[in-house]
Amino acid sequence: MEHYFTNNENLKSELRNLTLHIADTSLTFVSDLGVFAKDKIDYGSKLLIDVYLKEGRSEVSLLDVGCGYGVIGITLAKLLHTQSTLVDVNKRALHLAKMNAKEHKVDVSIIMSDGYDSVSGKFDCIMTNPPIRAGKATVMRILENAKEFLNDSGELWFVMRKDQGAKSAIAKLKEQYNIEIKEKSKGFYIIVAKKLLT
Ligand SMILES: C[S@@+](CC[C@H](N)C(=O)[O-])C[C@H]1O[C@@H](n2cnc3c(N)ncnc32)[C@H](O)[C@@H]1O
């Protein structure tokens, strides 16, 4: 069975434009078959960006894990001048993210990486709308290993639906992070995890 995170060289291409309406502006992203949220920008991702924008931070270093066509990392680079690094395992998603970064004239780093395998350095913020369909082990690996790539005061921001295991993920992460639920909307939780300093 094909998933949005598998690489299928034979998959046909049907490019389409999607518009993100956020913070009194509109940003257009190119999407295609074979990627997550191919027809509509995901509500959870938009909510994650929206809630982060309200924090009023700028110019932080940001890692977007499982970037898809780049909506999180590129939007924040555009609106908050974050220094964004975007990673994914899906080649097509990475290709689209590069097109979108070029279109929005943002200087971001876009890397093929399974989780943090090809990531180096530390970040002020790691953001993810994690790949639920890749399975719980992959999701928890992305969430739990984030702390190795965060600065001491860094934060992991993620979105998860209540019915996709948000509560059990929170319970598990509490062993390693201070957790705050920043927002709940339409069954989506926006969760911020800060490293427990030893
Ligand atoms: C829920 S989607 C979010 C996509 C994008 N951030 C958005 O908001 O539209 C999760 C993404 O994680 C990617 N992914 C799946 N397994 C991964 C892994 N092991 N490492 C990195 N990315 C992965 C998928 O290809 C997919 O693009």
Strand and helix layout:
Layout: E1 16-22, E2 25-31, H1 43-53, E3 61-65, H2 71-80, E4 83-88, H3 91-103, E5 109-112, E6 123-128, H4 136-145, E7 150-161, H5 166-173, E8 177-185, E9 188-195
Parallel strand pairs: 3-4, 3-6, 4-5, 6-7
Antiparallel strand pairs: 1-2, 7-9, 8-9
Helix pairs in contact: 1-2
The protein binds S-adenosylmethionine.
S-adenosylmethionine binds at residues 4-5, 36-37, 42, 45, 65-68, 71-72, 87-90, 93, 114-115, 129, 131, 134, 138.
Low-pLDDT parts are: none
Order of helices and strands: EEHEHEHEEHEHEE
Helix content: 25-40%
Percent of residues in beta strands:
25-35%
CATH superfamily: Vaccinia Virus protein VP39
**Principal-axes shape call:** globular
Structural class: alpha/beta
Number of strands: 9
CATH fold type: Rossmann fold
Radius of gyration: 16 Å
CATH architecture: 3-Layer(aba) Sandwich
Explain the overall architecture.
The protein is of the alpha/beta class. It has helices spanning 43-53, 71-80, 91-103, 136-145, 166-173, and strands at residues 16-22, 25-31, 61-65, 83-88, 109-112, 123-128, 150-161, 177-185, 188-195. It has a 7-stranded mixed β-sheet with strand order 5-4-3-6-7-9-8, sandwiched between helices. Helix 3 (91-103) links the parallel strand 4 and strand 5. The termini are far apart. The chain binds S-adenosylmethionine.
